[in-house]
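User: For documentation purposes, I need each entry recorded in a consistent format: the amino acid sequence on its own, followed directly by the corresponding C-alpha cells. There are two entries in this batch. Please keep commentary to a minimum and don't merge the entries.

Assistant: Recorded as requested. Entry 1:
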Amino acid sequence: MSHPSFNGVHYPARLLARNTVYNLMGRLLPMAIALAAIPYIIEGLGVERFGVLTLAWMVVGYFGIFDMGIGRAATKFVAQAISRREQEQLASLIWTSLLLLVGFGIIGGVLAALLTPWLVSDVLNISEALKGESRMAFLLLAASMPIVLGTSGARGVLEGQQRFRLVNAIKIPASAATFLMPLVVLFFSNNLFHIVAVLVGARCIVFFIHAYVCIASLPGRRMPQFPQHATAKRLLGFGGWLTATNVFGSLMALGYIDRLVIGNRLDLSAIAYYSTPFELTVKLLLLSGGLLGVLFPVFSAYAIDQRQKLEILHQCTVKFLFLSMGMVTIGLVAFASPFLRLWLDESFARESAVVLQLLTVGVLMSAISSAFLGAIQALGRPDLTAKRHIIELPFYAAAMWFCTVRWGIVGTAAVWTAWQVVEIGILLWFLKKLLPSAAARIQYQANVIAVGIIAVTTGAFALSAISDLSTRLVTTLLALATVLILGWRYILNAEDRRKLLHVLAPPAKPSEQLSTEVKQ
C-alpha cells in the first residue's frame, strides 16, 4: 500500500499497517485466551450447559440486528466528514448514532425477552433440568441489548477517526473477560444465570468507557444533543440496508440457522461438537476483519471521486488475504484431528475433525468475499448485498435442514462452506458492475485466486491423509513454503512487493505523523 490521499487527508502505508496490527492484537490475544479457557469452561459447565451458553450468546448476538447498521454507517460518514474537514458534522454524528442505538437496543431487548419463553421451551431442545436457569440467562442477556448496541455505535465513530489503538486497548481486556470471568464464577457456581450476570456487568463497564472516549474526542462539543433529523436520515438510509444484511445474512454467515437446526433436529451435544470448531474457525476471520476494519473508512473516503485508488487498494487486499488465509487453511486442515485431540479430547477429534476441515475452507472463502463486501458497501450500495441475502435465505435454510437431517453436523458444515462459494461469485459480479472500468482486471484476479483456492484446498486435504504425523508435518511445512514462494512470485506483482517491503522496512524517521488531523 502506498501513500494515498483524499482531499488533503493522507493515509500512509505504515499507518494502515500499524492500525491493522492493533486490530489483529485486539482479536488474537482474546482468541489465545479463549483457546486456553474453553476446555475448562466445558469441563466446569458440562457439554449441555456449554451448549446452552453458546446458544444464549448466539441469540442475543442475532438481536444485534437492531443496530440498524448505524455503527457501520457512523464509521463511513465520520471518515468522509474528516476527509472533507466537516468538523461540525462530527458532533451530530456522535450524539445521533449513540442515542439512536440505545433506543433501538431497548426495542431489541424487549423483543428478545418476549421471545425467550418460546425459544427455551419450544424451539431449543433444552432438558427440563436446565430450562429455568437458561430462561433467566436469556432474559438477562436481553436486558443488556441497549449497552451492546450503544458500544457498537461508539466504536464505529472511533474507527471512522482511525483511532484503532484506543479501540483495541479497550477491546482486548473486554474480550478476555468474556472467557476469564466464567472461569472465576465456576469456582462458586456453574449456574448459567450467575455467569451471564457477571458478563453483563462487564459489558456495562465497557459501554461507559467507549461512550466517554467517544464524546471526549470532540473538545468543546461534549454537551448532549438530541438526534438530528437530517443526520438520523443519513445514518438510517445507509444503515437500513445493512440491517437487512444483518437480519438475513447473519442467519447464514454466523451459523445461527445452522445451530438452530442442529438444536431442533439433533441434540445439544451435537451443538457443542459443531459450535466449538465453528467459533474457532470464524475467529480466523480476525485477520480479514482486522484489515478491513482499518480499510473500510479509507474505502469510504475514496469512493466519492478516487475510485481508481479504491480499486488498487482493494486488489492488494484480496491478494494479501488469499496468501495469509491460504497458509492458515493448509495448516489447520492438515492437522484438524490431532489439534482437536490435543486441545479438547478424543470425542471432539472424532466428531468434529471433518467439520473443522470443511469450515476452515469456508472461512478462507469468507475472508476473501469480505473484501468484496467492504468495497461494495463503501461505494454506497449496501442494498445489493442485502437483496442477495433475502433471495438466498430460503434456499440456504432448505439445504441446511436437508443436509443436517441426512448427514448430521458434517452436512451442516458442508452447506455453510458451499454457500461461501456462492457468495464470492455474486459479490464479484456486483463489484464488476460498480467498477466497470476495472471489470477485466477484477475478473482476471478472481480467476487466479479461484485456481489458488482449489490448489490450496486439494493439497490441504491430501496432507491430512498422511498417517505418519512426522511425515505430515515436514510435508506441510514444504507446502507452506511453496505457497509463500509462488504467491510472492506470481500472485503479487512488482508494485505489490515494493509496497510490502516498504511497510516492513524500518521507518526512516523516529515517528510518522499524519499530515492532517486524523487522530491516532
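Entry 2:
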Amino acid sequence: MKILFIHADKFEYETKSRAVPDPEKLTGRLKKFSDREALVVFCTVEKEDEKSPQRIVRNALANIKEVAEQVRTNRVILYPYAHLSSSLAGREAALQILTNLEDELRKESLRIHRSPFGWYKSFKLECKGHPLSELSRTITAEEREEKKETPPTVYEIMDLHGNLHTPEQYQAKPEEAEFAALVEKEALKRGLEGGEPKYLEYCRKFGVEWESYSDIGHMRYGPEATLVFDLISDYAWATVKSLDIPVFQIRGTNMFSLSERPVREHAKLFGDKLYEIHVDDKALVLRYAACHQQFSSVKDWTISYRHLPFGTFEVADSYRLEQSGELLLCFRVRKLHMPDLHIYCKDLKNAQEISLDLHRKIYDEVRKLNREYVSIYNTTESFFREHKDFFMKLIEVERKPILLNFVPEGVYYWVINVEYTVIDDLGRPREIATFQIDIGNAKRFNISYVDESGERRYPPIIHTAIIGTVERYLFTLFDCAARLERQGKKPELPLWLTPTQVRVIPVSKGFLDHSLQVCRQLNLAQVRADIDDREETLPKRVREAEVSWIPYAIVIGGREVNRETVPVRIRRLEELREMRLKDLVAEIHQKTQGYPFRALSFPERVSLRPIY
C-alpha cells in the first residue's frame, strides 16, 4: 500500500462519475464531504497487499495513528487514490482492505470519513505547509518493529547564578527573546509562526538546489556554490587546527556492515533515521557522521597516555533518512557533510577541560557572525549534580541562561550533549553546532590506551562539529544576510567566502585588454576577480554586479588606462572610491585575514560561462 499524508486546513470533495464498472454504492455522506483541520490519507491498495490483507491493515493503522498524533489531530479522511502505484489490487480485495482499515481506525476513537471507492471525484485541498504536513509511506506486510517509547525527559532552566527554574515559571528578560523562543518550542512544545524563509532565495542566487535525479533530500551545487562549499570545508579544518591539541585527518568509506557488532549497536543508538542499503545479501548502513570510519581506524592504533588528548577529523559525507515532509534546503537534508572532530581524552576530567575550550571556540565562531547561540544541554541529573561547577564554567561563556534537558540514566552513550541553536529570521530555533562527551563508544569499538601504570583504559571521546555541518553553516550565513536585508541593509556573504570579490567591467570592447590585465593582476595577488566582458550595456553590467553581491566593482574606461588609481564601487558602503590596486588588495587581505583562500574555480570571463 502506498500512502500520501496531507495535513489540511480544509479539504472537500464531490463525487462526479464512475471510475470502474462496479464502484462502491453511494450514500448521502459519501457523495459530497468537507472537513477542516484534518489528516487526509490518500491511499493506493496494491496487488501485493492481497497476499496479507490483515497485516497490511495492521501496519497501515499503526502508521496513520502515528502521523495523526504527530500533527495533533483526531480527524482522518481515508481517500482511495489509484495514482500512487501502477500495480493495483483487484476491486474486491482493495475495497475489503479499505473498509477494514476504516473500521480499525474508528475503534481508535478517531473521527473517520472514507470517500467512496471506484469514483472520479473533484477535490479542493488547502495544505497547512508545516514540516510534517506532507509525508509519504510505503506499507508492507512485514512485521512492523514496535517503536520504543522515548523515555521521558525533564526540562529546567539554569540562570547565570546556577539557580534552576521550571520553563513554565521562568520570566524571560526583554534581552532574552531568542532564549524565550527556544524554551517555547523545545520545552513547552508550542508551535511558532513560520513562513517562506528568505534564505531560499539566496540559495537560488548562488546555485544551491535539490538534485531531482537523486533520492529526495540530496543537494547539488552550481559553480559559485561549489567554491563556497570548498571554502567552508577548508575553514572547518582551520578551526580544528587552531585547537591546542594534535589532530589527524583521515578518510575512508561511507558505508558499514550491520553484521559488525559495534556498527550494529551504534546504529541502534542512532534511532529511526538510518539510511540502509542492501547489496549481495548484506545489510549496510550509510554513515550518519564520521564516527564509524574514525573509530574503526583508531581501534587499530597503538596509543599511550602520552599521546592523549588527540583528535581525528574528516569532512564526512553523512546520510540521515529525514522525513520527506521535514526536508529543508541546506538545513535538513538526507546527505550532509559533517566536519566531524573526535577528541580522545585521558579521563572525564580531561574531557571536561577540552570541552570547555571547545565551547569557547564554538561561541567565538558564531560571534564572528554577530550572532548568538541559545543552547540546550542534554544530560543526566546525576552528572549535572556531580559536575555543576563544569556547567557554571560553560554558562559563563554563554552569558545567558541555558535550557537543561534531563534525560534518563543509562540510556545514552554520552553524559552531556550540547545543542547550539540559532533563532532564524522567522523566529524558529535551528540547531547548528554541537559537542558530546561520549563514555560508551571507546569500549564498543575497542579503542583503548595504556596508562602510566601499564593498565589498558578506554578514553572518553568528545564528538564535535565546531561550525556545524557545511550545509548548516551556509544556512547560518544566508540567515545572517536575511537579517541584514530585513534591517534595510544590503545582504551579503562574508568577504572571504564571496565567490567573486572584485568584478572588473570594461566600458566597451576597446578597454577589454586593459581590464583583463587588471583582473589577472588581482587574481595573482590572491583576490578573486572576474571580468564582465559581455555585450550588454554598462548600467546593466554594473547592476548585475550589485545584485550578485559582489563587494567591489571596477569600471575601466579611457580615463583609467593611464592612471595609477581606479574607481572602486564599494557595495556595502554604496560609495565610489579612487584606489590604487595594491591598496584594494591590501584592504581585502586585511578583511579576510585568518580565513582560507581558493582561486576562482570557473572562467574569469563572464562571457565564457553558460547561464546556470
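Summary note for entry 2:
The CA atoms of residues 168 and 188 lie 7 Å apart.
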